[in-house]
């Protein structure tokens, strides 16, 4: 079709305006070539690519006569069109200093980035598809267990240990909350004793007739304040250890238990799916689905057994760690409180040294505003 268009362009006459227009013969010839391309494409789309019977609809540039002119009747000198001029007219001229080969090679990175984008989109779609299928199967299994229609894999011994852990955590959280309340109340009492001792000492200086009485009480309150700060350090150490045990050690084990329970649900879901396919027809398509279901079943079975083992090990170590930590902390709490209320300052300080409890500077026991948020 390109050769036919060029032959038509070479045999047609090109009128040159004589009214002083700045248009050149090359401009008019180029526009007729474009018009020929458009007309031939329209006729090819309608009647097929029979170029021997193609006619040109000529409107004439500035003339009133219009009609259909057979291509065989067009005669005239050949038209030489500069390809670079054609590119400039169509807006496709290359940039200065850039060769056409470089212009086409620049499109390769864009094509590669487009293919990479498509690959990422396909990967996300596959991931979403797998997630949807897995969620559907697990939801179906969960409702089947709720309504008593599906079977559930249960390890009675492990489930009993998990229930004990959850109950123990709730009780330890109550101990932690009460110990924090005791710390806050005792801190306020120590601050009150310190203020009261300062007031007694000031009055002993200003009341000569009661100087001895105010002096005795001031010394007593200061001693109580000092012993209270020592006991406060022991209680703070107790609270910190219980907080680590409850909110870190136990919480880590419960997170593993949650993963184990999710793996158990997935395992039962794919097991039920495999059992449902196994009792169905055994044609070629069904055998392919059974094989895929068998692979998924094995994958989730291995995951379930691995997490089952992890939970058993963590529960064992947690119990050992809990007994060790609580034995030390309960002994510390008992000895410190007993020594404080017995007024035995030496025993109180010895208890803190025994358990390697370091006292904080006065006024630093109260949590900062950032910790309270």
Automatic annotation (TrEMBL):
The listed locations are: Golgi apparatus membrane; Golgi apparatus, trans-Golgi network
Q: Which residues form the AH domain?
A: 153-353
Q: Which UniProt keywords apply?
A: Coiled coil, Golgi apparatus, Membrane, Phosphoprotein
Please name the GO terms of the biological process aspect recorded for this protein, alphabetically.
intracellular protein transport; regulation of Arp2/3 complex-mediated actin nucleation
Q: Which N-terminal stretch is annotated as signal sequence?
A: none
Annotated coiled-coil positions are 290-321
| Flavoprotein recorded as keyword | no
Looking up PROSITE patterns in the UniProt record yields: AH (PS50870)
Primary localisation category: Golgi
UniProt protein name:
ADP-ribosylation factor interacting protein 2a
């Amino acid at each position: 079709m390109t050769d036919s268009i060029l032959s038509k362009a070479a045999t047609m006459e090109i009128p040159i305006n004589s009214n002083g227009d700045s248009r050149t013969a090359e401009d008019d010839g180029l526009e007729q070539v474009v018009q020929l391309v458009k007309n031939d494409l329209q006729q090819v789309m309608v009647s097929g690519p029979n170029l021997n019977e193609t006619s040109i609809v000529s409107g004439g540039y500035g003339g009133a006569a219009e009609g259909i002119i057979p291509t065989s009747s067009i005669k005239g000198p050949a038209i030489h069109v500069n390809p670079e001029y054609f590119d400039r007219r169509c807006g496709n001229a290359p940039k200065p200093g850039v060769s056409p080969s470089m212009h086409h090679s620049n499109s390769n990175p864009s094509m590669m980035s487009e293919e990479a984008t498509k690959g990422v989109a396909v990967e996300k779609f596959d991931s979403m598809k797998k997630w949807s299928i897995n969620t559907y199967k697990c939801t179906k299994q969960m409702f089947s267990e709720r309504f008593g229609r599906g079977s559930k894999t249960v390890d009675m011994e492990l489930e009993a240990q998990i229930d004990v852990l959850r109950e123990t955590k709730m009780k330890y959280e109550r101990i932690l909350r009460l110990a924090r309340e005791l710390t806050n109340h005792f801190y306020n009492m120590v601050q009150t004793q310190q203020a009261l001792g300062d007031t007694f000492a000031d009055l002993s200086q200003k009341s000569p007739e009661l100087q001895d009485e105010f002096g005795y009480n001031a010394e007593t309150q200061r001693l109580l304040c000092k012993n209270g700060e020592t006991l406060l350090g022991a209680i703070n150490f107790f609270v910190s250890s219980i907080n680590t045990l409850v909110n870190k050690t136990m919480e880590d084990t419960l997170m593993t238990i949650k993963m184990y329970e999710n793996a158990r649900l997935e395992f039962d879901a794919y097991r039920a799916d495999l059992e449902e396919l196994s009792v169905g027809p055994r044609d070629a398509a069904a055998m392919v689905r059974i094989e895929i279901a068998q692979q998924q079943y094995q994958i989730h079975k291995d995951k379930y057994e691995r997490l089952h083992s992890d939970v058993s090990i963590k529960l064992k170590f947690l119990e050992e760690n809990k007994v060790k930590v609580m034995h030390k902390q309960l002994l510390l709490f008992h000895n410190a409180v007993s020594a404080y209320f017995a007024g035995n300052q030496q025993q109180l300080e010895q208890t803190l040294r025994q358990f390697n409890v370091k006292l904080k500077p006065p006024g630093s026991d109260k949590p900062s505003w950032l910790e309270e948020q």
